[in-house]
Specification:
ABC_transp_permease; 13 helices; mainly alpha; two-stranded antiparallel sheet; transmembrane transporter activity; 73% helix; Branched-chain amino acid ABC transporter permease
């Protein structure tokens, strides 16, 4: 059994989730005439969808983090601040111009520029010194938090959703039946479905860029043996600056996404930094599919935990991380 888990971590997780769902269906059958049972089904299905869409947001944040921390081995504990800073900038641009799309562009460019400053001014001077990187980036995150508190205050902000994403859409999932036998379909916020689709597209593009392009091969080669790659004439530092800028820019974009269906406020940066750390550890350092799998698992554990065991919702998230570290320290899809 343990050997199967090690060889097929993804299928192991899928089988586990399937077994949990099957147990739920067996213990609580779905007679359409029992309204109480139907309500429980609605709560469960909504919690699952909320967990998956929250995982999509976590993936957008963690995908940049896995490039910087998992792939380049740069310990950037200011990544959560990049998320919140990008969200605040996106809110300001959207509120001032009324253009939701411009908010994404400004947040990406601004955070990418800040990422370039961090890479050149901090990480290039401390290559291989993880403790110094940790301490310095903690200090940077504290400074950025104070700057954001000074500019935007302690209020809650939310990015305005464009008109075409307002309201809910019908999903092909039957949640019950009317008295005349007509099926009732599940309604779900359109903005969350959009975020899920956008996250899937971003993940596919990142995986293709890292595994099917020349620049992706240079990045992976530079991480493994930068001296040898530099000897071939590749300007490895320029490549690393570009990767850091991309990771920071993705954090800014995630901030706008998060600010669209959640609130932006002081303290959110710490929450998403911790979530990114857990996602990267669970999924495997430097693995884009691993980040996606880890994000979905963490999102589901948070939402299902908050519904069924609200007192221990946070515990379930870290319990997953502990189990992964105990049985597969390199992460579910990390290289051994």
């Amino acid at each position: 059994m343990n050997r199967f888990v090690q060889r097929h971590p993804v299928w192991s997780v899928i089988i586990l989730l399937g077994a949990i769902l099957l147990l739920w269906l067996i213990v609580s059958p779905w007679p359409a005439w029992l309204e109480e049972t139907i309500d429980r089904k609605k709560v469960f299905i909504n919690a699952v969808f909320n967990g998956v869409t929250l995982g999509a947001l976590y993936f957008l944040v963690a995908s940049g983090f896995t490039l910087i921390f998992g792939l380049m081995r740069n310990v950037n504990l200011a990544h959560g601040s990049l998320y919140l800073f990008g969200g605040y900038l996106g809110y300001t641009v959207s509120d001032y111009t009324g253009n939701w799309y411009l908010a994404f562009l400004v947040a990406f460019i601004a955070m990418a520029a800040l990422g370039i400053v961090l890479q050149i001014g901090v990480f290039r001077r401390m290559e291989g010194e993880e403790l110094r990187q940790t301490l310095v980036t903690i200090g940077i995150s504290i400074v950025l938090a104070d700057v954001m508190l000074w500019i935007w205050g302690g209020d809650f902000y939310q990015v305005e959703t464009p008109d075409w994403l307002y309201g809910a859409i019908d999903l092909p999932i039957i949640t019950g039946f009317k008295s005349d036998g007509t099926a009732v379909y599940m309604k779900y916020p359109a903005v969350r479905i959009f975020i899920l689709v956008a996250s899937i597209i971003v993940g596919i593009l990142m995986w293709l860029a890292l595994n099917r392009t020349r620049i992706g091969m240079m990045i992976r080669a530079g991480v493994d043996d930068r001296e040898m790659l530099s000897a071939t004439g590749v300007r490895i530092q320029l490549v690393f600056v570009a990767v850091f800028a991309l990771g920071a820019g993705l954090a800014g974009v995630a901030g706008v996404v998060g600010g669209t269906f959640q609130a932006l406020a002081p303290g959110v940066d710490t929450r998403f930094l911790l979530a990114s750390l857990v996602v990267v550890i669970v999924g495997g350092m430097g693995s884009i599919p691993g980040a996606a799998l880890g994000a979905v698992l963490i999102g589901l554990s948070e939402q299902l935990g908050s519904v069924y065991v609200p007192t221990y919702a946070v515990v379930t998230t870290f319990l997953i991380m502990v189990l992964v570290l105990a049985f597969r320290p390199q992460g579910l899809l990390g290289k051994g």
